[in-house]
Amino acid sequence: MSSNTVPVASNARSATAKISALKAGPPRVSFKTQMLQAREEAIVQAASRLLAEKGFDLMTVDQVAADVGIAKASLYKHFPSKEDLAAAAMVRVLGRARTFLASLPREAAPLDQLKTVVRWMMRLQLAGEMPSLPSQNSTLRATLMRNKAYLDGLMEASEQIGSWIEQAQAEGALDPRLPAIAVLYTLYARACDPVLEFLRMGGQHSDEEIVELVLRTCFCGLSSR
Amino acid sequence: MSSNTVPVASNARSATAKISALKAGPPRVSFKTQMLQAREEAIVQAASRLLAEKGFDLMTVDQVAADVGIAKASLYKHFPSKEDLAAAAMVRVLGRARTFLASLPREAAPLDQLKTVVRWMMRLQLAGEMPSLPSQNSTLRATLMRNKAYLDGLMEASEQIGSWIEQAQAEGALDPRLPAIAVLYTLYARACDPVLEFLRMGGQHSDEEIVELVLRTCFCGLSSR
DNA sequence: GTCTATAATCAGATAGAC
DNA sequence: GTCTATCTGATTATAGAC
Questions:
Q1: In angstroms, what separates the C-alpha of B183 from chain A's closest C-alpha?
Q2: What predicted TM-score, i.e. pTM, was given to this entire model?
Q3: Does domain A1-79 match CATH 1.10.10.60?
Q4: Top-level CATH class of A80-225?
Q5: What is the CA B139 to C1' D14 distance in angstroms?
């Protein structure tokens, strides 16, 4: 019932329609389209939060619609299925990842870049903003594999991170015996690591301590050095 | 539709009943009870397999019943709910873990014991015999927390493994700066590590190679030493 | 205890008015 | 595009005969 998003006021529609009708101009997004995109963003944001909180199977479309404050049928005008909605949530987080990756200084050491990325993913999970999709649901997998925006986003992020992995291995900072793809998967897996939640439930550590703890075990391992 | 289990022949019931009626003796399990337990074992085994394959939410009670070759209503005579069935599957795997732990030679180094346990868990997952329960489902969590056999089994395994962790840390084989509980969680997490499945999908490595690869990253980390 | 048949509920998706 | 109301199918769980 708690709507933590601010939907666009619906009574402003006729006014904006008139304005956009008066203005003739170059190909740009109209206010109407902007409002549409804003609503879609609100939907996807709510879906992301619920996906992080309950996971795909336990999240219901009713909850998403209620959270945004619209009817379920309206939601289905934007997204043809629950799977496509989840895919949109993944595209959104991949977009945020791209923005974050682009903001990183180029001069840092590859290993530090990787650690920074993993920290960012874990913080996102602890903040309840990392949608978690089950890898077992085949219909969801099929939808994701057909989604070009998802595949492109995943590819772009993987190429950037994979490049750092190879550089770090060439420098000898990362174990060169490990296949780069295995390293990539291992880093991605930190984004949905259940250890984060378990440690938080223990109540012995702050979120930052948890992040650094798991980061250490990820890169340095459990054994002594 | 494929029943990979061999249920006890039902036409043997009357005969066994007569035999058990003739024999008076010390308090022992009757054949009837044994048959009942065998059927329950078949149900739990099927549930374990389906839980590993599809996860709790996507597994249906119909599928379990069909897999065992009994009617769904019969299954509900044995287990009062789907959650209790999943709990029984967890109890079963914990029992297998206890048997395995008890079979380990006592003289081995604690660190090697831990690695042996993690190998066993990962092989079980790759064999499709490790039931995976979502940590998000609250009704399932509540059922598990009320299940004494589950809690006892988990406690016993955790105490044995925790003991090895402390010994390994005292010896300096395991990083003493890590909280023992964090190490325990990290080891348990290997039992449901999605990296295993992803690496298998890549098709570049055998199951044994995958196990050793993930084991290395778990204990030695990604960084060079 | 096992079965067939069914109740009860829930969730994804849609129809049709506005 | 948004709404209310509904359909449709799947799923957990149970009733009642044998």
A1: 7
A2: 0.89
A3: yes
A4: mainly alpha
A5: 20
Q: Is B81 on the interface with A (CB under 8 A)?
A: no
DSSP string for residues in B70-118:
S-HHHHHHH-SSHHHHHHHHHHHHHHHHHHHHHHS-TTS-HHHHHHHHH
* pLDDT for the residue B12: 40
List protein-proximal bases of chain C (any atom < 7 A from a CB). Answer: 1-5, 10-16
Average pLDDT, chain B: 91
CA atoms within 13 A on the CB side of A98: 14
pLDDT in tens, B53-93: 999 999 999 999 999 999 999 999 999 999 999 999 999 99
pLDDT at A205 over 80: yes
CATH number, domain B17-220, options 3.30.460.10, 2.60.120.10, 1.10.357.10, 1.20.210.10 = 1.10.357.10
Chain B contact present for A57, CB below 8 A? yes
Q: How far is the CA of A60 from the C1' of C9 (A)?
A: 15
Cβ distance of A136 and B193 shorter than 8 Å: no
